[in-house]
Structure formats: C-alpha cells, structure tokens
Design goal:
It is built from 18 helices and 27 strands. Helix content is 31%, strand content 19%. Zn(2+) binds at residue 160.
Length: 671
Amino acid sequence: MNILNTLGQHVLFGGDYNPEQWPEHIWHEDVQRMKEAGVNLVSVGIFGWAKLEPSEGQYEFDWLDRVLNLLQEHNIGVNLATATASPPAWFALKYPESLPVTRDGVTLGFGSRQHYSPASAVYREKAAQLVRKLAGRYGTHPAVKMWHINNEYGCHIWECFSESTAQAFRGWLQKKYQALSEVNRVWGTAFWSQTYHQWEEIQPPRAMPGFYNPTQYLDWRRFSSDMMQECMQLEVDILREVTPHIPVNTNFLSVAKNLNQRELAKLEDIVSIDIYPDPASEDAALEVAIQGDWARSMRDGQPWILMEQAPNQVQWRHINAIKKPGQMRLLSYQLMARGARGILYFQWRQSVSGSEKYHSGMLPHTGVKSRTWQEIKQLGQELKGLPLLSYQHTAEVAIIVDWDSWQALEQESHPHVQLRLMQQVQQIYRTLHRRNIAVDFTTSHHDLSKYRLVYLPSTPLMDQASAGNLKNYVRQGGCLVSAFFSGITDEHDHIQQGTDQGSYSPGLKELLGVNILEFAPQQDGTVLQLSNGWEGSMWADVLELNGATALATYQREISGPAITCNLYGEGQAYHMGTQLTSQSLQVFTDLLLENRNLKAPLDVPEGIEVVRWQDGTLFLTNPTDAPCSISLPSAMTALVGTTEGHTLQLAPMGVAVLQPQSHPTEVLTPQ
C-alpha cells in the first residue's frame, strides 16, 4: 500500500472530533467551521465505545452514520477510531477481572480512561468484536481514510499486576525459554535463593522487601510492552482482513520508555505521534525537534503524522502556560520540516465538561473571535495553499537508542541510579540542533553505514551482534562516540563474559582501545576538571589506554584518561569516560563536526533553526524574541514568508519555506 497516495498529496490538517459530546445541531456548525479553517481530516470515535455499545452486544451506529455522512458531504476525511481505548461502565462492572492492578495490589476502577489490563482475555475479546463490527459497517464508507487504533498505548497503564496477568507472564516465559531451568539460568536465580521449581512460583515483580531481580524486571518490561503490541496486532489483523485497502495507525505519546514504539510501528502503515511541548520552556523548540525526528525515525525515514498537539494550552501540567502568538504555527512548521505530512490537534471543539475542559481546542470556549481560532484558521488556509512538497530527508548523524538497554540502564542497584537515557540524548541532540545538523534516531542493530557520525549514549545492555555492528561501522570509516557504561552486560543483563580478562565492556575493548578498570560515580554537584579545560560530572571511568590516545585526562581525585580516541580500521572511535557538561560537550561536538566535515545547510544567527530537504527546500523558524536577517546563497522562491533578493527577514516566531527558483512547483487544486 502506498500510504501517501492513499491519503492524498495535501498536508493533512484537522484534529480529534468528538461529536458525541455535543447536540446534533452543533455538528452542522462544526463542519462549516472546519471548511473555513481548511480542515480535511478528523479523528472520530476515539472515546466512543460507550455510545457505540451502550450495553453488551447492543450496538448503536446510527449517530456515527450521520456524522460520517455529514463529513463526507463536506469533503472532510475521517480517521475512524476503533474506540477501544476506554471500555464502557457496563464492561467494568460485569468483568472486574479486566481492570488493571498496581504493583501494590490496588485495583484501578472505572471513571477515568484506559481502565483495562492489556493482557485481559475478556478485554481483547470484546474489543475484537467491536473492531469487527466497525470494519464491517464502515469499510466501504467513502469518508473513511484511515483506521485509528486505540489511543496512546501506555499513557496511563503500561503494566498490570493482576493474577490473570501473572498467568499470562508465565505463559510468555514458557514460550520464550521453553524450560524452567533456562529461566533460572537467565535470571540468575541462584542469587538470594530465588530458584524456581514450578512455573506457578513465578510472579510479576510486585512490591518487594528489597531489590528485585534485574533480569526478571527486564523480561517483565518486555512482556508488558508485548501485551500492548498483541492488543494492537489483534486489531490490525481484523482491519486488514476486512478492509485491506484502508491504512491503519495508532498515535504514540511522545518519546516513551514504557512502550517499545519501534516494534509497534512495524504493525502500522504510517507513524502517528502526539507532541505536547511546554510552551513556557525555553526548550520548547528543542523538544519538538527531538520528537519530530523520533517519529520519522521509527519507520526509518518515512513521512509521518502529528496526530495531536495543543492548539494553545493543555490542562495536565501543574501550571498550564499558553502558547505565545505565532508559537503554534512555528512548532507546526518545525514538524513539517522533519517529515510530518499531517498537522492535527486535540481537539476540534473545546469541551465544556470533563477532565479536559481546560485543554484548548481548535474552536475554543470563546469562539471565533479568539486568538487561537484565528491562528488555527490562518495556518489551515496557509497549508491548503502550499504547492506539492516532496519530502526527502537525509541525516548524516545518528543517535542510538536501544529500548531493552533503556530498561536496563534505569534500574535499581546500579553504580549510579540517577542515570537517565533521555537526559543524555537531549544533551547530545542539543549540541547538534544548535548547529542545525540533521539527526536520525537508530538502534545498534541497524545498518549505520550512511552516517558519518554516530553517538552511543550509555547503553549498558549489548549483545554480540550489536557490538559487531558497531565495530564494522567504524572499521569501514565511520565515527562512533561512545558514552560511559556501555556494553557492560549481555542481552540478559549479565556482566559480559570476558570481563575477567581485565576490562569491562570486553566486546568493545578492541574498538575503543581502552581497558575500563572500574567505575567511579560522582556525588551531586561534583565537577571533574579535565586537562584540556573541559569539565565532567556524574561519572568517571577509570581507564587504561590500550591503543587509544587520550584527548583529555582527569586533573584531581581521579587520574588517567577521561576522553579518548582510537583509530580502528578506516574510522575513529571515541570514548567519553565522564558525563561532559553541556558547554564542554558542545565544544567536543563542534570538533567532531569539523573533523567529519559536517556543516549546517545555511549560515544563520544563533537560535534560528534551518532544515534542508534533498530537493533544496529550506524550512527556517525563529523561536527567539528578536528579528533577524539571513543571507541566502541565491535567489529563492518563498512559499511561506517573503524574501528581498538574497535576503530573508525573519520576525520573532517567524517561519519561512523557501525553494530554489529552478525547483518545479506544482500548485494543487484547492480542496
């Protein structure tokens, strides 16, 4: 299926539409306003299960028929939800065993949302029945352009500790390991008298007196993600059986540790993601950039859909700041620059009751005179008037994020329990984003040959295949920057075999050219002075050179190399034995970029973001408070913004989309 041909060439624009919250006469006003705002796609029925099936086995579709027909009459496409994200009250009452249970044994009740255990057999049965009914009824409806599966898997419930889930966990382990003896070996149960002699003895890692078994917890996280993946697979299979011509997607919630998003993304036709940066944060633009690159990377460069963002403010932070004038538009173009083919929102009309009544809507409480509505309408019409844009992305820098290792890194009983993968990722990404260097997110199993520079943040868990892949990448001319506490354990989170030969991370020892003798975690606030003027914190590897060259050494309490470089094959492998401070890491990154001849697509003032596509299209955004003047290498056609000769003036919160004047421009027929 060519997903982009199926969805059409226009940028998708719209949001979640919840007509069940409103009297029917409002629906007609809604579609008129949607057309006024340039809306061409809405997600319908995400939380509609209670209205679709008010009692068990009794389905009421007449209202949804009228909604879809009305939208079709106004040429507004529908991303039709399977409505399985929030089971109705009758379901919770009749099947209490389906409710999620916390680690402490508390059963979570009805009255919010996502109140189901992902492993619940009865939940899956009733969800499958609903999905099949919807697919059979609406699979040929001309308004339906996509299927929206569930909603934000893992947002509230990513694990359940009920007895039925414990049984499912044992079944998962039996399928994975076959023999109980293998579970005992992999989990290292000889420690602390944890050996199992019957499958029934195995339980989830509920509340315990002390530290839990690390490998048991790792398998538990894998199992819990797999349970959500099975729920999604169940719906995907039904939809592809009944409606093979309609693409399927689910909306991920940001960059999430709780769910192996890359694995779930394999099940859908196009990635969708919800992105909610804090507009009051000075890092709002950085947050959006990271999450946009993450969304694109989940299916290795395929365009994707921003399924939800806030038109203005949210309601779930302690303090819910409003977006500045122009900020919503700017952040939207940032995401388009990173491959978003759809710009959608939660939600269309702002609710007047319920937990999200203070969450902004495209059409706010204060109506069409509001600033939010005016900005929504401006953006929708602007996107509608854009010519055909052919997204082609190329990044020559990548950051590795391995989900299994992420789970292992942030466990208890480690040398430093405050290590956080995404803090490291953001720090690395910031240094590249500041220089307008395009970034992909990848894994240690992926082919890395197209990248000229690859960062490996702390990745303690690493199998032999991954270590071999990294060595092969560098051997063939790549440049790897490896952080401390990487390659320490195998895929079972056991200390790597061969460590007793004198170094941690034996699988990377030859590549890095150092022996890692011991770890020296640092107290909060400690600053490690390095010989070249750089500074480190949090951690210090005690290193011994074994072929590498020291770029910086420790100056005080710890002695020896801190930052090293090793020539390996045709490439270079760097090891960061400490967490460089932001300023020092920026200096290091700048040296790496110069060494690898990696440059920004355009020389712009500090704080201005520029993204270049393969066809020469440039996206420029100014999230700062100051206007700026940018010199262009040649005269360009402004699709958004204005140029004067070879100069672009960019106001605060300003946006420009430019194409080379030689670029063929195809203006689409307005919808």
